């Protein structure tokens, strides 16, 4: 058991590759790339612009997730500044799980969340994942509208799921 635990945390090599690409949104060029540990500070800044303090994920958890060999984190970058990110857990072949999606407040309502979700959907479909799940604050209307547009349906309700505000969360799922 200890051997398995050590192996899980000692292998920093990412299992999931992603080819960097240039994307255009509203005539602006962005780089979509695999997140690196140096992005953690910028992820925190994004969280601070869109969530009340305390932010949902402290920096040590953000760093751990970026290094997680069973997850893929993507950063959307403009002029060397991360302006959005998405994370997806890929440890279970039957069901991928979006762990985080955040867009800097100055870049919201440009279709960036849609672009990131499309990218993760395509990535998971190409690797034959069957479903995708996530949790969302029941009061986050813009996120709920985005997930509804992608066909996510409520699987269950988690009462008082979020520690910072005690809001409920909907666990949502979609077939890929």
How would you briefly describe this protein structure?
It contains five helices and eight strands; from the N terminus they run H-E-E-H-H-E-E-E-H-E-H-E-E. With 176 residues, it is α+β, with helices and mostly antiparallel strands.
Question: What report would you give on this structure?
Answer:
28% of the residues are buried. Strand 3 (71-78) and strand 4 (81-89) form a beta hairpin. This protein is globular. Residues 1-14 have low confidence and may be disordered. An eight-stranded mixed sheet has the order 1-2-3-4-5-6-8-7, sandwiched between helices. By secondary structure, the protein is an alpha+beta fold. The protein has helices spanning 2-10, 40-50, 59-67, 112-126, 141-149; strands spanning 21-25, 28-34, 71-78, 81-89, 95-103, 131-137, 153-158, 169-175.
Distance between the termini: 34 Å
Number of strands: 8
Helix content: 25-40%
The overall pLDDT, averaged over residues, is 89
* Rg value: 16 Å
